[in-house]
Amino acid sequence: MITDIYLDANATSPVLPAAAAAAMAAMQDCFGNPSSSHATGLRARALRERVRACARRVVGAPEGRLMFNSGATEGIQTAVLSALCAVRERRASGKACGEGFADIVLVGATEHKAVSESLAHWNRLLGLGLELRVLPVDGDGRHRLDVLRALAPRLAFVCTMAANNETGVVSDLDGISAVLLDTTSPALWMVDCVQALGKLPLGLGASRIDYAPFSGHKLYAPKGIGMLYVREGAPFTPLMCGGGQEDNARSGTENMSGIAALGAVLEALERGDTFLGTEALQACHARLADAVAHAFPGVVFNAPAYALPTTLNFSVPGVTSAELLDLFDAAGMRVSAGSACAASRAAPSYVLDAMGLPAWRSMSAVRLSIGPLLDDAALELACQRIAQCGAALALPASMAAGLETVKPDAALEAGMELDAIAAHGWLAAHPDAIVVDVRDAREHSVACQLELHGRQALNVPLARVAEHAAAWLGADARPLLFVCRSGARSARAARTLRALGHPRACSLAGGLALAV
After folding, report:
1. Tens digits of per-residue pLDDT, 8-19?
2. Which CATH code fits 17-271?
3. Cβ atoms 238, 78 nearer than 8 A
4. Which of 54, 97, 241, 341 is catalytic?
5. Domain 5-13+277-394: CATH class, spelled out
6. Whole-angstrom Cα distance, residue 268 to residue 260?
């Protein structure tokens, strides 16, 4: 089985072994409720506060709120609710005094959709009717400070990010802060720090930033744990009310295993002996960029020099993101086309569109993102496989015939799609069955010969299924199990054979990723 090379760390990361051990210890040994007053609860409370103290040191926030939550989306929701409730109160006070009030909420054009969707949701729910405007970015992906300056006196709330999840572009936070201070803007300011933790220096307590959400799973902690920083004196409204945990900031019994795991990651950051430093990450970035440049002639990189060394975004002329993702996946490299939250929607990158890049670059963009635990062996193997993908892409177009030539109209029949467990039993019950891998020729060229439950697969690209149909049909037709990366192409192949009269053509539901 091919060894996975995981290059999608901006989407999520594996769990640091020390973090997994800390989570298990919290579940088994320090399992108390930190709100309890007995010894078991006190030990849990002490653990929670040790992690909070470490977090304060790592993000440079000796004062203000630093609360644990489920992750960045909850933190963003809490910050947005807090800011908009404060705007409502200011508005009521201003009207009472016959004064004006700030009426614009500004969100960066390349922000994560969790921000813009939260703003629209709470603006509507609170009935504020605030004007939501987009802060444009320049061709390098940085916020237009001239636009910010022009609007600053009317701003109620500004939302930007420390570093972009798709391109790695590092925002000019000092420049934004200077504009807000120079103009004495009344705006509250939220900075999404999800991609910044462990990659950028953070001194939140000395900054103009009012709210900063974090998510643990982007840096080797489990999913479901995060933090929100709220500057001392900044307006705050709890999103979660109930038992009054987290000093009435976020009710609900704390996720102690998640907090313990996050604490292990934060301690590793503070010690500085676990993760690659900036220089080492820059060297890794340079090697990956060099491998990409040699593998794909004409490649264009979609981020400037001031981007995180953990992120490499590029486009290959004449090749769509979907084609590149299929090729990388067949080679055992896990990459993405942008935000994981939007991966199911085949659409151009709104981040690259906002930067004013040509449409083809947006449609062809691929993101490689590494974590600071990347080792030399994985990096070397990644560079080798990038070269293999480049060689496969150079195959004649006739060998990678278009997948759109097979468009059967037959409806999905009961029993035609088999999940991994059912497929195992089905193959055992049909020893004469043929397993057919319908990935295209380019994918086959970078993938190992496929075996499924001891059955070697026949490689037939989807576009050539019709050529083989006659050999597979007839009174003594052998059962067929079609497989591909995700299950989409194999389902189309099975429908085609069923439509042609084959009674036992099936597809592996969910694709090869779920076959193991």
Report:
1. 999 999 999 999
2. 3.40.640.10
3. yes
4. 341
5. alpha beta
6. 13
